[in-house]
Amino acid sequence: MKTILVTGGAGFIGSNLVRYLIQHTAYNVVNADKLTYSGNLDSLRDIADDARYSFEQADICDAPIITALFEKYQPEFLMHLAAESHVDRSIDGPAEFLNTNIIGTFNLLETTRAYWQNLDRTRKEAFRFLHISTDEVFGSLGSSGFFTEATSYKPNSPYSASKASSDHLVRAWYHTYGLPTVITNCSNNYGPYQFPEKLIPVVILKALKGESIPVYGKGANIRDWLYVEDHVTALLSVLEKGEIGQTYNVGGNAERTNLELVKIICNILNELKPNDSIGDYKELITFVTDRPGHDLRYAIDSSKIQNELGWKPAKTLEAGLRETVNWYLENKEWWERILSGAYRLERIGLKTNSK
């Protein structure tokens, strides 16, 4: 059985990926995660005792530790998801984003290159380094058009700038050193096990608490939403069938304004968890000061991965949101443990905009 080393496998997308690999494939999976505030081993309890799963607490910025993991597990593939990922946090504290997303990716590329160069010919040709990135590196779209793999990078936040930098490093290590890398850029993910600082879990949990649901600006910002398991199947398709040196955009074909999205969630909650004291959850919607540098619209053109690799999203937005709301309703213990710690659904990312 081949082994996949996954960085950031205790995070939102990473934990969904690790569970899917264990439950639906024959791969051995090594999860290397630093366990920062958003890394949560509770998200992996279902597969924690599986013989094909291993966990190692490791920081991608620590080259000797990553080198030791390569030597110990001898992986055939690496899927790199470890990253600081929340725009608001990057506004308040950009240094950690530069350290993890840029320096960490550099260290990972160098340790991977040293390992890869010493493989025998067959294993060297089969090895893949899959770097998972975001559509935010492309900046903001107008009211029409889509991000393609040829779209120029124009990041507008410390987070997206750090991810753009990591993408460029990965591309450079392919062209300069021949390291067999592939890059994916995805649209906004949602689904089970998402840390409750992102929009969809914030809306769900604020509504359940009967608190104001914050919507930035006028709620006019548009995102393309991708159900996390659809993203996971796309990543597996790229790992197994993607062309070395290529980039693949992964989107859900589900554009909505933030306000539209919030109202859909409120309507689902009205049906699944009615609250007579509140009435309509939409009454909790409150417009708040917009995020500094908030990109207006993201939208992904996924035709390349669909045409070349045969992948397409299976979940409609409405079906995915219903499953997500149900999951949060049925897994109160998971998110209550998070909210009992340092994070309390408070607003962050309001540093003064110098424009």
Topology:
Elements: E1 3-7, H1 12-24, E2 28-33, E3 53-57, H2 63-73, E4 77-80, H3 87-92, H4 94-117, H5 121-126, E5 128-134, H6 158-177, E6 181-186, E7 188-190, H7 199-209, E8 213-216, E9 222-227, H8 228-241, E10 247-250, E11 255-257, H9 258-272, E12 285-288, H10 303-309, H11 317-330, H12 332-339
Parallel strand pairs: 1-2, 1-4, 2-3, 4-5, 5-6, 6-10, 7-9, 8-12
Antiparallel strand pairs: 9-11
Helix pairs in contact: 1-8, 2-4, 4-6, 7-9, 9-11
Plain-language structure description:
This protein has helices at residues 12-24, 63-73, 87-92, 94-117, 121-126, 158-177, 199-209, 228-241, 258-272, 303-309, 317-330, 332-339, and strands at 3-7, 28-33, 53-57, 77-80, 128-134, 181-186, 188-190, 213-216, 222-227, 247-250, 255-257, 285-288. The longest helix has 24 residues, at 94-117. It is globular, with a radius of gyration of 20 Å. It has a domain at 3-191 and 225-252 and 296-315: NAD(P)-binding Rossmann-like Domain (Rossmann fold, 3-Layer(aba) Sandwich), CATH 3.40.50. Helix 1 packs across helix 8 (228-241) and helix 2 (63-73) packs across helix 4. With 355 residues, it is an alpha/beta fold. The strands form three sheets. Strands 3-2-1-4-5-6-10 form a seven-stranded parallel sheet, sandwiched between helices. Strands 7-9-11 form a three-stranded mixed sheet. The chain has a two-stranded parallel ribbon with strand order 8-12. Strand 5 (128-134), helix 6 (158-177) and strand 6 (181-186) form a beta-alpha-beta unit. The termini are far apart. The chain has twelve helices and twelve strands. The mean pLDDT is 94.
